[in-house]
Amino acid sequence: MASLLADNSSLSDEGSLAVERAIPELRRGRPVVIRGASGAALLVVAAESAEPALLTQLLEQQDIRLILPAERLQHIGFAAERPQAISVAGWSEARLKEAVLAPTPTSLVPLLANVDIALPQAEAGLTLLKLAHLLPAALAVALPPMGVSSTLVALTTVDITGYQDRSAAALTIATRTPVPLSEAVDSEFVVFHGGDGERDQLAIVIGELDTTGPVPVRLHSACLTGDLFGSLKCDCGDQLRRAVQDISEFGGGVILYLDQEGRGIGLRSKMRAYSLQAAQHDTVDANTLLGYAPDERRYKVASRMLDLLGVTEVTLLTNNPEKIRALTSSGIDVVSTRRVLGQVNAHNWGYLATKAARSGHLLDALSLTKSDG
Fold first, then answer.
1. Pairing of strands 201-207, 187-193
2. Whole-structure pTM value
3. Of 196, 235, 285, 295, catalytic
4. The predicted structure's pLDDT at residue 151
5. What would the DSSP string read from start to end of 241-302?
6. CATH architecture assigned to 165-260+297-368
7. Cα–Cα distance measured from residue 237 to residue 132, given in angstroms and rounded to the nearest whole number
8. Between 311 and which of 22, 31, 171, 306 could a Cys-Cys bridge form, CB atoms 3.0 to 4.6 Å apart?
């Protein structure tokens, strides 16, 4: 047993383990250490959740930097293509909050003439914050070569940038059991272990799964507001129920219910994006104002789930061309597609129109007829 514990590689991929330890640390407001290829290290903490005492100490450091992604900076007129580092020494917590969250962060404007391109460690830090479902805004301080405390979680840029591919490859089936549904009595829930951040993923196998030909498949990102509460702001709940009904009528198929709330930004940031939408920003701009890409979802986990179910050819139920490209690039043969349309109402019309106009979703004019209902 002693030799087994001494060799962590026999228990888990060390890089993935470091990421999975770092995620809860950041969510609790504690810092982590990220090393680059040269060995240089940065102390990184989430700007939105840093512990108050730590935040006060950090803002007193002369070399403290706020790392913001290009997407957020572009909204205030800075032509950034990569994350930038902004000196915030001596700032108040209120000023920092404005820089990180406000739709028009005026406190940043006079500083943009002197920003620096962020180090690779800082860029990896933003990726790590996204994995933790935190805003991609990091406070970072360079550490001296011998300045890393052994009590802090330490990891490398390679650990972070390769994490999603490694976690997808490590996915396994944890359990499966029959769960009869109102529109598909012959259904089985299959739970997978090992996805991003160790969050379980779910497949619903409906009817007879015939893998000798194309299998009807729906990739459905979890939507608490639409799927569970029937929100009128989106068509997610309608699409989910329509997919269950359609696949049942086809005689069998699979719904992959992916833990990708808010197009991959998590519930907290999704609600922030909703607030921005209420202030007349569309869904794409709301996400990028917060520093995210318009769509942060990745589908390597989905293709791995299909592999484990023995599915190699699919009829994909989707309006989203990116899902077709993602599965095809992962070796899944998308033989054909079928659109899944929800109800259009006065609350989701703009959301659907943005999907079509800015994200290329396959929604025809009839489906986008504006309604007052």
1. antiparallel
2. 0.90
3. 295
4. 87
5. HHHHHHHHHHTEEEEEEE--HHHHTHHHHHHHHHHHHHTT--HHHHHHHTT--S-----HHH
6. 3-Layer(aba) Sandwich (3.40)
7. 25
8. 306
Of 30, 35, 218, 297, the catalytic one is 297
Phi and psi at residue 367, in whole multiples of 5°? -70, -20
Tokens of 68: 């913001």
End-to-end CA distance of the chain: 65
**Does CATH place domain 2-161 in 3.90.870.10?**
yes
Residue whose token pair is 């396959």: 362
> Would you call 297 a catalytic residue per the annotation?
yes
Phi and psi of 38, rounded to 5°? -80, -5
Residue 365 neighbours by CB under 8 Å, 6+ apart: none
**How many C-beta atoms lie closer than 10 Å to residue 21's C-beta?**
13
Would you state the pLDDT for residue 147? 59
Task: Copy the structure tokens of residue 277.
Answer: 């939408």
Structure tokens at 327: 């599965």
User: How many CB atoms neighbour CB 119 within 10 A?
Assistant: 21
Helices marked H in the chain: 2-6, 14-27, 52-59, 70-74, 93-101, 120-131, 157-161, 163-169, 236-250, 261-264, 266-278, 283-289, 300-308, 321-329, 349-359
Residue type, 262: G
For residue 148, what pLDDT is reported? 65
Chunked into runs of 10 residues, the chain (373 residues) has average pLDDT values of 46 84 96 92 96 95 95 89 94 93 86 87 97 97 76 95 92 96 96 81 96 97 96 94 95 96 96 94 93 94 97 96 95 95 86 82 60 43
Q: 3-class DSSP state for residue 10?
A: helix
Identify which of 207, 215, 218, 189 has the alpha carbon closest to the alpha carbon of residue 248.
Answer: 207
Tell me the C-alpha distance between 71 and 281, whole Å.
15
φ and ψ of 313, to 5 deg: -125, 135
**CA–CA separation, 211 vs 225, rounded Å?**
33
Domain ranges of the chain: 2-161, 165-260+297-368
Letter for the amino acid at 77?
G
How far apart (Å, rounded) are the C-alpha atoms in residues 12 and 166?
11
